[in-house]
Protein 1
Amino acid sequence: MDFTQKPTNSTPELTAELAMIVYNKIKEAGNADLAYKAQADSALEPEWFDIVNKEGDRIINEIISKENGTFIVEPAYPATYNEDGSIKEEAVPAVYFDASDTNFLINSITSDLLDVATVYADYKAK
């Protein structure tokens, strides 16, 4: 038997307001599966919990990457050489995101569903 949740044609659209409700339920329950099962009236679609969970993970992974200095803003380019071995173009080192300004970090991440500032605050509160 296949018990995986699959979107149906009748699933209503997930709005940012509903996504934040789902996000808060996931935060309270500890994970998306428990949050869905804890609903008293099953008013929120099961697909929404999966979508919101993945979006939250994406935001947190981007925060971690930017804070660790591994998020590349501009890629590195190796030096190129002429046939005689002289340098044609100098090597260009990669440019990494500078996460020293928290507001800049938060504003650099976009989401159509979740409030990035809230996700950031919850991530830091752990």
Protein 2
Amino acid sequence: MKRLRQTNTASVVLRHLSQPDEPGSNLQIEVNRVRWRDLSFLRRPRKQILLNQPYGYWLTGDPFQAGMRQLMPLIRSVDRVAVARGDGRPLGHAVFRVNIPDDRWTLESVGSSTGVYQSEPIWEELFRYSVMAAGLEGAKRLYAKLPVGSSLIGSARKTGFAPYATEHVWTSSDIPAATACSDVRRQSASDVWSIHQLYMAAVPRQVQYAEAITSHHWDANARVSTDERVTGWLFEDGNQILGYVRVTTRPDRHVLEFIVNPDHRDVAHELLQTAFAQLAAMPRRTVFAVVRSYQFELLLMLERAGLTAWQEQDVFVKYTTAPVVSPVINGLPATQELSEPVGKRVPTFYETHGEAVTKATLGKIRTAATNNRP
């Protein structure tokens, strides 16, 4: 089992904190990983924003619980909690979660306790520190799902996070009545490669570059835990998969995501009906459906099924390493210097113990060669 190595780096910077309409004052901010003495502050932060919706929830985003898991000795933790301090007291925190097996970091929540001062400078330093800590652990990407219009967007952009997709999250408190379609079947272990081929064909190239997922991502058992399981249904035409719906189930909710061939958008309705028919047999849970901006036509299908708009958010990515393109220098042909023709020289293998053959020895060799000439 892979061991997650946690760094113990620190970031200290002088920042200017200000009130919304008044000038502020400079304050030295130190950002570091969570410490035991920070837990009392993390238990009741003044301002808390839960992110990574609709997958994030109190267990993964709660800074106190995440901090406890990270600080417990001899326990393999995927939590990364950064705390900003100034003037001897905590000012804010950021909770990231390491996703196995590719070690990408996902922002689960942020919080602050700055009183009358604005929180954006604190969040900016928390993001900057987390990027550095992720890079030192070997992570190549950090992700953040931020609601449209959120005050976090400015801090994320200043630290290098860039949006690559927009998500529309719709919800329903009950499972709508539905009938399963005979052309839709449950995902099996052998479907992983075919689902990934559908993803490559249906998702824009820039999104694929940002997400950098492999076929193992579609394994139905990849994200199974004690309180979460993943199932999938697909619409197949011969040997070609035209549509796929992935359902993540937790004790309090179902989350649906779609991948549909752009030329066969109509199969999304059969996928949705079959998923609802299967989920209706389970205990009652809230339903969420996530639709990307390049799947906008699916929103009408969700509205007709009885779901309502819940949140719109942008998906950001930050690379800890940047590809560097080295200029290609064409080799220039070496020009030969023109010189007077010289006589033939004795080969260099006429050397004894690394020392050059003396002129007398060379003379004897030339004389012998002349006498033996026919």
Protein 3
Amino acid sequence: MKKMNLNLKMNKKLLYEFLSVTFAVFLGLMLNQWKDNRNNDKLAKQSNSNILSEITDNKTTVQEMLEEQKLALARIDSILPLLDNSDEQGDTYIGMNFQIISSTSWETAKLTQAIVYMDIEIVNDIAGVYDFQDYYESIVKEFVVDNIYNKPEKRDAEFIRKMKVFLEAIIPMENNLIEYYDYLQSELIDIT
């Protein structure tokens, strides 16, 4: 009987230790999961904030370029009839300034896998805006590369016409890009 009481006490003690260790491990895992979730949420919020800041800067850059492109197009419209009706070239210089539009925050969010913890609809919207931005930049880059060696004094009516076609193509794209930035800003402001 003593032996049975001793076994029963030992079994109770083992059961108690087993349950307390199991509970401690469970608590540790829960705490670890909570910390991971908190860190992942913090990473997603930081990425959203960085993207919002980058989008705001990009919007300002595109707005500045848009104003310059509109002025350049107006200048082309005013000098093109003169070039068509005259053998003299005159002052045909049309300055255009293209600036780099950043995508560093988006690329960082992808590389750090922060997008895994971001809202899927927001990620989809962000990806769409950056894809359109990349498309816009590819068109600008192609034009610049094709015309980089065309000196201002060698710009003739044909080049001016090409520039006009180019500007007529990218001005609506810049307007669209600004609208996309506005939409994305409103979405990101709501969640940051």
Protein 4
Amino acid sequence: MAALSACTDQTPSFNPTPAPTRPGQVVVIAGSPDNFAPPRDGEYAIRSSAQSDGGLAVDPATGSIYVRVFSGREKVIERIERDGTITTLRVKNPGDQLAISSGTLWIMSSGKELQLSRMSLSDLQEERVLHGDEGRAVQIEDASGRRLDPKQLNKSWDSARFTIRGDGVPIIVASTGALFEVPGDATLRAWEPEGYEAALRKVAGKDDLHPTDVVAYGHRGLMVLGPRGLIRIPADGTANAARFPATTRSLPPWTAVTPLRDGSALLLGGTSAFQRRPRPLLVRPDGRLELLPFGGPKWCDQFDGTLAAVASAEPGGLARMPNGDYVLSDKNCGRIYRFRLPTTLNGTASSLHQQPEPVPSTAFIAA
């Protein structure tokens, strides 16, 4: 009987659903860095692979976390369930960007051809919305609904970013910085918020924006992040921009942004194998920039449960949980972090204008 009981006891010897319990704490909720095996249904997320080239979203209704993962030749999205296990969703779109709205998972990939699809989370049926290389051609319209020549924008989709606006409309930011709504299948319509053109010029000048992230901001607003600055598009009002100092141009760009309750924006990323010093940034509503003291660089095997791990990560996606926690996909370490921010965030502005310190040539050696 004892042997039979031991065989049927499925209680794990570890915590399968870790969560932060205090401000400033970071926990690993998915990903074993040495595990490259294809994920399987029913595995615990923290024991499975979470190796990814990007793509993370949180369902605001359920708190379920979706992340795009490597799985051999298959295209797989993991859903982390409440009990810590995963469900694998096989998809057609190889996209590296995810968003969720009203029970629908949106998947986008950008490159030579733009692909956007949606999957109903009730029946897991996937439908193509935009597909540039086959089927019905994408129709592109200006803000008044007049058709534009798609050839004029063919190069604009490389490294484009997307999100779902607060009113449920998908928004795509082209590499030029131009904004497009997706009002229906195979259709893009230019969106020109008040003041956006001037804000774009302030950030990018005469060059393309090359967006690194975009996130919903209120009911009809956005935050658009580029290598040289951040653009805010409020739900009601005129777009404005905060430009980064010239000293940041030689450094890796910030690649993840999330709005905070006080209207500030938290920026993460900005590290690489050759530039290891973390540079988490706070952009205040009035445009002031503050570097946050999250701690020094941490390699994957130096995880200590502090915000230094988040600051050192290479973000593949950043999203807010319904309870106020945040989740971050770290492409460098193949992990998903869940963390709680301090109640008050304060940083310093002076070091932003200092020249970066030289990085030793051995910095690229992984742990």
